[in-house]
């Protein structure tokens, strides 16, 4: 398996992987592939990583700039998606490791909204006061790369349609 940056040829396969994987989540809206496309169109994909095997895209991770409260410089990870037939083979972990390695070079930390039982293994955790309107606090998580204490609302890029702007 190879983790690499997306190319223009990958775009249809990325949409398929994101749609198929996110379908499994009860909270999915069906718009996740469109969010990626909007981020791409707006030049807001800080990271757009694919996992490739034998020429096929089997996993995908996006990252975009975000702020927490007044703190700029966070890397928002999401969506992270692995083709359902390839779950539990380390593909999501490989994408996450590479994303964190790259974000460390220019971000104060990574943040995301997701299942804490999965993301804790990478060092993500909830913090007092770290929130996204309408989300249970335990699913809003951060991984600071320095001593920054993330406090306040995690503001996504407007492509996520969550109200405030990064
Ligand atoms: C979540 C997801 C990206 C994980 O990818 P993956 O390639 O299956 O993950 P890995 O193989 O790296 O998993 C590593 C570990 O996480 C566990 N795991 C996988 N999905 C999990 C989940 N939803 N909750 C808890 N643990 C999970 C695996 O059992 C494995 O644990 P083990 O090593 O102790 O067996 C993938 O399951 C997926 O695409 N799910 C649907 C979309 C989604 O939930 N995206 C994330 C939220 S935006």
UniProtKB/TrEMBL annotation:
Protein known as: N-acetyltransferase
SUPFAM superfamilies: Acyl-CoA N-acyltransferases (Nat)
Domain N-acetyltransferase, chain residue ranges per copy: 1-146
UniProt cross-references to InterPro entries, sorted A to Z: Acyl_CoA_acyltransferase, GNAT_dom
Source organism (scientific name): Azorhizobium oxalatiphilum
Gene Ontology molecular function: any one: acyltransferase activity, transferring groups other than amino-acyl groups
Pfam short name (any one): Acetyltransf_7
Alphabetical list of CDD domains matching this protein: NAT_SF (cd04301)
């Amino acid at each position: 398996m190879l983790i690499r940056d997306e190319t223009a040829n990958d775009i249809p396969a990325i949409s398929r992987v994101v749609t198929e994987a996110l379908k499994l989540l009860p909270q999915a809206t069906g718009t996740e592939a469109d969010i990626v496309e909007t981020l791409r169109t707006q030049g807001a994909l800080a990271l757009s990583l694919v996992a490739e095997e034998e020429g096929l895209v089997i996993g995908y991770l996006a990252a975009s700039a975000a702020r927490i409260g007044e703190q700029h410089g966070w890397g928002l990870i999401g969506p992270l998606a692995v083709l359902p037939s390839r779950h539990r083979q380390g593909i999501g972990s490989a994408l996450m490791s590479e994303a964190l390695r790259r974000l460390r070079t220019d971000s104060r930390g990574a943040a995301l909204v997701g299942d804490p039982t999965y993301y804790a293994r990478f060092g993500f955790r909830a913090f007092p006061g770290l929130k996204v309107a309408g989300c249970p606090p335990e699913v809003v998580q951060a991984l600071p790369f320095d001593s920054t204490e993330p406090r306040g609302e995690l503001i996504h890029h407007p492509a996520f349609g969550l109200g405030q702007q990064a």
